[in-house]
Structure formats: C-alpha cells, structure tokens
Amino acid sequence: MLVVDGLPDDRVALLVKMHHSTVDGITGANLIGELFDLTPAPPPASARTALRVTRTPNPFELLGHALLERLAEPVEIVKLLPATLGNIGAAVWQLAVLGNGTAGMTMPFTAPRTSFNATVTGRRTVAFVDVSLPEVKAIKQALGVTVNDVLTAVVGAALQRYLADRGELPRTAARRRRARLGA
User: Fold this and answer.
1) Does 142 lie in the same domain as 100?
2) Which residues lie across from 2 on neighbouring strands?
3) Which of 32, 108, 131, 157 has its CA 20 to 30 A from that of 55?
C-alpha cells in the first residue's frame, strides 16, 4: 500500500497492489470495501478508535498519539488471549483425536526437508516461463475447472519434477509418483 500525497486540491490517494493469489475473492472484496468505504458513518463503538483529523496535527501531537496507541497494545493483546488459547486448544484436540493430517491438518514444523524450507540466504535463482493462455483455457474448458486450477496444477507438477530430479521429493509424493508412472 502506498499513500500518494501532493495531489491537486490537497487530495491524497491510497494505492493498493496485491496479487489475487494472496487473498481470496470475498476477503479481498471485503478488505477493499473497508478501505475505500465512502460513507461518513463512523466505525462501530467496538472498533478501535482512530485519530480524527480536522486539521493537520503537529509532530508532537502525532508522537503523543503514537505513544498512546503503543501503550494500549498490551491491553488489546490481553483481550485476544482467551480466543487465541481456545483456538490453539481446539487445534491440538483435533490433531490428538483425529490424528496427524486426517482432518486436513498437519503438525507444525513437520514439513519434509527440501531446499525450499532451508535457511534463506542471499543466493537465489529465478526462472521464467511463458504459458499459452489459449492452451490453458482449452485445458480449463476440457476439465471444467478454472484457469487458476490449471496453473496451480502446472506449477505443482513442475515443483514435483524439480524436487524429484534433485532427489528431494518427499517419500509420500515419491510413492504416488512411482505408482502413477508404473514403476
């Protein structure tokens, strides 16, 4: 998000740039709706209070407001604790009762070791590929899925092949691949 100031008539603009894969459609629409709400109605009383600007505050006012907000954060964190602990308890209970992964959940920090989940260093490689949109759309139509489904499958298959070529394919994925290839 960028705030663009210096526009004519003392206006400002808020520029929001996000990739659609980082937020689902409904959540994104709700987020944008909240950010760009044009109604003059204030937020509900339960919402966090914001500094109402009727004039440009001086730096000391901004600093004072920032300090007050920072001091209020521990109180907000304490208010979140009961719900957070309840959510953690529910997740642990599901894992304990339903087993590892049977409910679509896995234990934290149990991802197989690959070069992707190692320590991030400054040495990185980037590769690009062109994909024919008409071909992707033809596959989409033939399978009755979305363009995103097709691209996700292509990226997943490429990732699987890359890990297999490097000998890093996790055991369960390697077994499925061998079964599919008849090996």
Assistant:
1) no
2) 15
3) 32
